[in-house]
Amino acid sequence: MSKDQGKDPLRRYREKRDFTLTAEPQGSVAPSASGDPRFVVQRHRASRLHYDFRLEIDGVLASWSVPKGPTLDPSTRRLAVRVEDHPLDYFDFEGVIPTGGYGGGDVVVWDWGTWRSGHGDPAHDLAAGDLHLDLHGEKLGGRFALVRRGKPSSTREQWLLVHKDDDAAVRGWNPEDYPRSVRSGLTNDEVVERGTRPAGLG
Ligand code: MN
Fold first, then answer.
1. If you average pLDDT over residues 177-193, what whole number do you get?
2. How far apart are CA 113 and CA 115, in angstroms?
3. Is 70 exceeded by the pLDDT of residue 5?
4. Ligand 1 being an ion, which residues bring their Cβ within 5 A of it?
5. Residue 81 lies in a domain
6. Which residue range is the domain that position 52 belongs to?
7. Taking residues 111-119, what's their average pLDDT?
8. Which residues of 37-54 are buried (b: 16+ CB within 10 A; e: fewer)?
9. Does residue 122 fall inside a structural domain?
10. How many C-beta atoms lie closer than 10 Å to residue 147's C-beta?
11. Rounded mean pLDDT, 135-140
């Protein structure tokens, strides 16, 4: 996906948004932090409910939209549609995106933590369409595979997200049973009730 984004990996992210309307961060490409890279999963009620699955790779958050959300159930495959890279400061974004703008709706930080690549260099694996992830989150843990279906594309590649059958696997595990934010403890409805300011600020 980086091919047509030129020097600025966040160009597509910024083009989709009007920052006079949304409180989402404008973003900058940060130097890689020390320690393990981070991941975040946001529960986003837009025109359709989905979970945004984001992995810190090379100074941005590589991102997928997962309609049914990630699961610890190793017998279930989840569709994950690759979307534009997001800035690292999206990591703890929680709040209301104005209706009518791109992604209008409400967002909670559903899970966060760090991750490690199970093999090789993450940027290489991302380009190759075959990532193996060890997640250390508050809800998600254990080994996941994230694999591209079909050929690389500049937009909306379809990937599959699968949990391996390891010690962290739980059959029948449903993300909707654990709806609260790991940042604020709030549900999406409670974030809306608090208004458009990001929870925890001001
Ligand atoms: Mn989203």
1. 96
2. 7
3. no
4. 44, 52
5. yes
6. 11-22+35-194
7. 92
8. bbbbbbbbbbeeebbbbb
9. yes
10. 15
11. 96
Mean pLDDT of the chain: 90
Neighbouring CB atoms inside 10 A of 20's CB total 6
Confidence of residue 33 (pLDDT cuts 50, 70, 90): low
CA of 185 from ligand 1 middle (Å) equals: 20
**Number of CB atoms found within 10 A of residue 89's CB:** 14
Cα(64) to centroid(ligand 1), Å = 8
Output the CA 65–ligand 1 centroid distance in Å: 6
Contact predicate 43/179, CB 8 Å: yes
Give pLDDT tens digits for 58-70: 999 999 999 999 9
User: Number of folded domains in the chain?
Assistant: 1
Whose CA is closest to 54, among 161, 172, 201, 195? 161
In a domain, 28, yes or no: no
Could you tell me the distance, in angstroms and rounded to a whole number, from the CA of residue 111 to the centre of ligand 1?
14
Q: Within a 10 A sphere around the Cβ of 66, how many other Cβ atoms?
A: 20
Q: Which residues contact 153 (CB under 8 A, 6 or more apart)?
A: none
Question: Quick one: the chain helix, strand, coil %, rounded to 5?
Answer: 15, 35, 50
Any domain includes 160:
yes
Q: How far apart are CA 45 and CA 56, in angstroms?
A: 23
Judge whether residue 130 has pLDDT over 80: yes
